[in-house]
Amino acid sequence: MKTKVLLIEDSKSLAKLYQQYVKDEPYDFYHVETGEEAIRFIEREVPQLIILDLKLPDMPGETILDWLAEQQIPSSVIIATAHGSIDCAVSLLQKGAKDFLEKPIKAERLKTSINLHLQRTKLENLVEDIERKFDRNRFHGFIGSSLAMQGVYKIIDSVAPTSASVFIIGESGTGKEVCAEAIHKESKRRDKPFIAINCGAIPKDLMESEIFGHIKGAFTGATADRKGAATLADGGTLFLDELCEMELEMQKKLLRFLQTGTFSPLGASSERKVDVRIICATNRDPLQEVEDGRFREDLYYRVHVVPVEMPPLRERGNDIVTLAKHFLIQYAKEDGKQFSSISSDAESALKSYEWPGNVRQLQNIIRNIVVLNDERRLSITHLPSQFTARNSDSAAAKNYNSSAPSQNTLAESLNAPSSHPLPIHHQIKPMWQVEQEVIQQAIEYCDGNVLNAAVLLELSASTVYRKKQAWEANNDTKDDCMLK
User: How far apart are alpha carbons 170 and 176 in whole angstroms?
Assistant: First the structure.
């Protein structure tokens, strides 16, 4: 489909002249004479670029610009204006217009301006699409843009549309159920049920009934038929959390269900068939559980088709602070408290902590702070004792190391000359060169993948692309000068 450019101009003669200018260009050039016609056209099919005359017979061009902003129309706008209206055109640039052309518009000026803005729009859309896909800060129930989480998001994108079984592995509190729900919401089963069962929280004698259901009289207390999770999840997704907690005999029945899609409710004499996608999770090492005889090897290979490893919070870098701020603002709003920010020393303490309970532990700590305090900023004094003790130990060790040098260090300082030579000039690099080297090293480390490098550097992909293009253009210019 060709790119669309819309000219809003009440002069038919000028419109015909402009159409003649661009007749050989690779885009469709449309013309309307009034603001009302323009609005009807844009509502029908949104153009990539609009050339807008300021003085229209039925309304001023500024009204069209305001309407575009109110309707959030993504078209770029170039103002066409006479010499006396340049000041007005400049003010419209502040309201969202991208450029202005002074009448009478020459052929080359018109073509160059249109091509420039179409290329810029295409590049901006491409960068936005890339960032939405690969540099996401939020993804379903997840919050975080660390490299580790970007990897999880990509796996979910790939596996969700398929029917493959997924095995989520991760420590307690890393978000395994959130991952399972994200897979379900991204899949073709998103409109069907998502049923979650925690195998570690159900007594072993009730596990079969919970998953497959039972009929009336199947056991003492079974006073009515009861549908199990497999029936409730028919057409959708069944999530079995902490699968390694399941007894071996029940694992055998589960394996048969996974292989055939059929099961018999407890006490029933006939089988039933359902269409269910299985997602499993564990906080243990499943291979170790197989070696120790607590998990069936054949079941392991049946469910371990696509593994997803959830990173622990301590390996997610700045995501820790992002999550902490999210929970802080959320709970402050719920409880009517003032908290809105976190001090820098508290951020450092949060990032350096090991987080054995992961996101769930962070969530509970922030909840506790909001409940017991009412200030604008969360400081290090609000954090539990394990945080302040850790910082005190680190500071003490640092002070001890700095105030008590070793004998060798002391001897070296006594024998050292009274003044230190200044650093050699060529060892000091300008900041732009250091920045370029760091970004290039990150791109090389990521095998040329600029998106992954941007995540690693905690920069937006568009920033890295822009700097990379600027360096390459500069190198090309230098090469041209050398050739001349």
Answer: 7
CATH number at residue 55: 3.40.50.2300
- What span, in angstroms and rounded, lies between the C-alpha atoms of 369 and 362? 11
Helices (H), 160-247: 176-186, 207-212, 229-232
| DSSP per position, 38-91 | HHHHHHHS--SEEEEESB-SSSBHHHHHHHHHHTT---EEEEEE-GGGHHHHHH
Q: Is the dihedral of CA 51, 22, 466, 462 positive or negative?
A: positive
Answer yes or no: is 17 within a domain: yes
5-9, 128-132, 285-289: least confidently modelled range: 128-132
Alpha-carbon distance values, 223 to 160, 204, 214, 218, 220 (Å): 39, 20, 10, 9, 8
Greater pLDDT, 367 or 457: 367
Determine the distance from the C-alpha atom of residue 407 to the mean position of all C-alpha atoms in its chain, rounded to a whole number: 52
Angstrom distance (rounded) from CA 206 to CA 213: 10
Q: What is the crossing angle of helices 461-483 and 450-457, to 10°?
A: 120
Report which of 205, 257, 248 is spatially closest to residue 230, judged by C-alpha positions. 257
Pairwise pLDDT comparison (121 vs 29), residue with the higher score? 29
Average pLDDT over residues 374-394: 79
Write the single-letter amino acid at 296. Answer: R
Which of residues 81, 111, 131 is at a domain's end?
A: 131
Strand partners, 197: 240
pLDDT value at position 403?
43
CATH number at residue 370: 1.10.8.60
With a cut of 90, say whether residue 409 has pLDDT above it.
Answer: no
Answer whether residue 344 is part of any domain.
yes
Tokens, residue 334: 């719920």
* Cα(195)–Cα(197) distance, integer angstroms: 7
Do 163 and 287 share a domain, yes or no? yes
Q: What is the pLDDT of residues 113-159, one digit of tens each?
A: 898 888 887 777 765 565 555 556 788 889 998 889 988 999 999 99
Q: Tell me how far apart the alpha carbons of residues 294 and 301 are, in angstroms, rounded to a whole number.
A: 14
The answer to the question of residue 216 being in a domain is yes
Whether 413 is covered by a domain: the verdict is: no
- Count of domains for the chain: 4
Give the pLDDT band (50/70/90) at residue 83.
low
- Tokens representing residue 276 in the block: 């269910």
- Helix (H) or strand (E) run with residue 333 in it: helix 319-335
pLDDT band at 185 (very low <50, low <70, confident <90, very high): very high
Q: Which domain holds residue 64?
A: 3-131
Token pair of 194, please?
């998502």
Say yes or no to pLDDT of 174 above 70: yes
* Residue 18 contacts residue 105 (beta carbons within 8 Å): yes
With 50 as the cut, is the pLDDT of residue 435 above it? yes
